[in-house]
User: Fold these one by one.
Assistant:
Number 1:
Amino acid sequence: MEQLMRSLLLSMAQNRAANRWAKRYGLRLGAQKFVAGETIEDAVATVRALNQQGIKVTLDHLGEFVNDEAEANESADYCIRTLEAIHEAGVDSSLSLKMTQMGLDISRDLCMKNMRRILDVAKQYDLLVTIDMEDYAHCQITLDILDELRQDYDNVGTVIQSYLYRSLEDVLRLGGQGVHLRIVKGAYKESPEVAFPDKADVDANYLKLMEAQLLSPGFAAIATHDERIIAQAKDFIQKHNIAKDKYEFQMLYGIKTSLQQQLVREGYPLRVYVPYGNDWYGYFMRRLAERPANVAFVLKGMFK
Ligand SMILES: Cc1cc2nc3c(=O)[nH]c(=O)nc-3n(C[C@H](O)[C@H](O)[C@H](O)COP(=O)(O)OP(=O)(O)OC[C@H]3O[C@@H](n4cnc5c(N)ncnc54)[C@H](O)[C@@H]3O)c2cc1C
């Protein structure tokens, strides 16, 4: 039943009509639990509040699967404005973005042009940009673009998903080259031809990827809310004496906030992924799919 609900929510995440509705009517259905607001000012205020608690941030101006060149350019402009706002406010935040937001589905060249515009500004301000990993159809091209960008920029990293069979090879190759990698389980609907269908296998592979990246020359962002994995990460870090500038834990805004505070109290480096903007629908549906119990919380909000 839970698997069915997850699959339904992930299909709904790509519904374009619902996405248009969401953009028009603003944060609804309880999305404010996971999204920091619609404006840059909202986002910067959230970053500041988290920084005051000892938490670093990565800001994501929401948007994905863009099919129009003007919209892709506008998304890149927004990313640049976000970098400028981070710099001007003097807050501790990197930037996360998606390739399909930069026009990847329109043309590789357009996406590359937008990425270079963003990375030039990020470089000027000494800020890191992380390329989120989207569905499997975009995985290889995302890594190809990353390889090309890394010839000119060292302030760019990406995400590897433990549900994909291919990922250990990717971590060994990229981590070996010193690439900054965020390790996640994976949030899209994928076929068993490319991804482990069983959660136990996804979790076991997560540990393999995390350990490989922690031992590599690349930075390891351990992005999960899974307490069992976090405990295993702490043991591994201690056993191998891994320095604090070599890794950090990462979690999503609004999820397991008490665990976030606990990690900070224990002295672990933590970064929270803070999304903002009016294109919140797909992101929100993926958060519901991760924990179908969240749907009950949405329904409660609707009937209040
Ligand atoms: C910083 C960060 C960046 C990410 N970037 C990407 C990316 O680029 N590409 C990508 O595919 N995925 C990304 N993800 C999402 C990731 O792939 C998982 O879908 C998500 O993190 C849930 O998996 P989990 O590791 O927390 O483990 P799970 O086993 O799913 O969850 C462990 C526990 O955490 C809690 N939990 C998890 N999710 C939720 C939720 N939505 N609401 C409430 N409680 C929850 C529950 O208590 C659950 O039992 C990112 C995640 C993080 C933390």
Number 2:
Amino acid sequence: MAFVRACALSELEEDTPKRVELDGTPVSVVQTAGEVFAIHDICSHANVSLSEGEVEDCQIECWLHGSSFDLRTGKPSGLPATRPVPVYPVKIEGDDVFVSLSQES
Ligand code: FES
């Protein structure tokens, strides 16, 4: 599983998603509840950036139509989205956050 550096841990603000591009893939990195998560930065309902949405209770909300996605599983909690968004494994080393674009979490 190839991890690539996404950002510095110190750049992340609690509950504030940070959008990064890894090998051309948009990823939203989120620090919340003492953990760091990486989720594909495009909603499964339409082409909207999830990193512009709000984070609460380990969920990221799509600002356009309000579906929330679980940061641990990528599953939507409600309509209109019905398909999950890929989530990616995260590894922290010192102040560096690494993400693997493999979708095993
Ligand atoms: S675009 Fe995200 S819920 Fe519609």
